[in-house]
Amino acid sequence: MGTALLRLQGVVAGYGRGDVLHGVDLTVEEGAVTCLIGPNGAGKSTVLKTVSGLLRPKRGRITLLGRDIGGLSPQAVLSHGVVHVPQERSLFPSMSVWDNVLMGGFVLRDRAVVRRRIEHIADRFPIVANRRHERAGSLSGGEQKIVEIARALMLDPVLVLMDEPSTGLDPRARQLVFHTITEINEGGRTVLLVEQNARSGLAIAHHGAVMESGRVRLEGTGSSLLADPEVARLFLGAAPANRG
Amino acid sequence: MNRLSAAGLARGGVVMCALVAFPFVFSQHWVLNMAFFVLMYAGLAQAWNLLGGYSGYISLGHVAFFGLGAYSEAILFSHIGIGSRGFLPLLVLPAIGIAVALTSVPVAWVALRTRHMTFAIVTLTLLFVVQQLAFNLRGLTHGSQGVSVPSPTFSLYERPFYLALLAIFALATLVTWHVRRDRLGLMLFAIRDDEDKARGVGVRATEAKVFTFAVSVGMTAMIGAVWAYYIGYVYPQFAIDPLVMIGSLLPVFLGGAGTVWGPVLGAFILVPAQQWLAYRYGASELYLIAYAAVFLAIILLLPRGILPSIADMVARRRDGRTTPRLPVGSAREEIAS
Question: pTM of the full predicted structure?
Answer without folding.
Answer: 0.84
